[in-house]
Write a structure and sequence with these properties.
Aminopeptidase; alpha+beta; globular; about 30% helix
Length: about 190
C-alpha cells in the first residue's frame, strides 16, 4: 500500500518527496526484498520499529533530511512506488553549507537509471532550495554501483579515507566524492562520461 504525498521535484520517470511515517510498511518490505543487493554496504530498516526511529530522525531531526525516490506513472502504484531513498546527513550551515549524501536503490528499481534521475533531483533541490554549496558522498571502494552513480551525476573523486566509517562491525575504507553548486552551473568541459 502506498501513501502519496506531493513531490518536491519531478523528472520524467521519478519524483522525490519527504519520508512519512505511513511509508513504513512499503519501505521495510522493499528493504527486506533488497537485503542481498544492499549487503555488505547498506542496512536500511526492515522492521516497523526500526523504520519509525530511522524516519523520525529524518522527519523531525536537525542537521539531516531525507527523500524517497518514487516512480511516476505506475498503474499498480499511482502515487509512485518507492524505488529508493537519498538522505542528506551532517548538514552544516554558515560558511561551509555542506551535506553528506547516503542512498540506496531497492532491488526492483536497481539498474534502471531511476536513482540517477533521483540523485539529480536531490542535488538540484539541495543547491537551489536548501542553499547548500557542497554535497559529499563517501563510498566503500568495492561498491561499484554506488561509485558509478556518483561519477555519472558529475561528482568528482577527491580522495581516499582509510577506516572512515564503522559499518557492519568494522571500520571501512571509503572514497570521497564531491559536487559543488558551481560544478552544476559550469560543467567541466574535459570531464569524461
Amino acid at each position: 500500500m502506498h501513501h502519496s504525498t506531493a513531490h518536491l521535484a519531478e523528472g520524467p520517470r521519478v519524483g522525490i518527496r519527504p519520508y512519512t511515517y505511513a511509508d513504513g510498511p512499503e519501505f521495510t518490505a522493499r528493504a527486506r526484498e533488497s537485503r542481498e543487493l544492499h549487503r555488505p554496504w547498506l542496512f536500511p530498516p526492515t522492521t516497523d520499529e526500526a523504520y519509525a526511529a530511522y524516519a523520525g530522525g529524518l522527519i523531525e531531526g536537525r542537521g539531516r533530511t531525507g527523500f524517497l525516490v518514487c516512480e511516476r506513472g505506475r498503474e499498480d502504484a499511482p502515487g509512485g512506488a518507492i524505488a529508493g531513498f537519498i538522505n542528506i546527513n551532517n548538514i552544516v550551515a554558515g560558511a561551509f553549507r555542506c551535506g553528506a549524501l547516503g542512498y540506496g536503490a531497492f532491488v526492483h528499481a536497481a539498474g534502471r537509471g531511476l536513482m540517477s534521475e533521483g540523485l539529480g533531483l536531490v542535488t538540484r533541490y539541495a543547491f537551489e532550495v536548501l542553499d547548500l554549496h557542497r554535497l559529499e558522498i563517501n563510498v566503500q571502494p568495492g561498491n561499484t554501483a554506488s561509485i558509478a552513480l556518483a561519477r555519472g551525476r558529475g561528482f568528482r573523486l577527491e580522495g581516499f579515507s582509510p577506516d572512515f566509517l564503522h559499518i557492519d562491525g568494522a571500520w571501512r575504507d571509503h572514497q570521497r566524492w564531491a559536487l559543488t553548486a558551481e560544478m552544476t552551473r559550469h560543467p567541466d568541459p574535459f570531464a569524461q562520461s
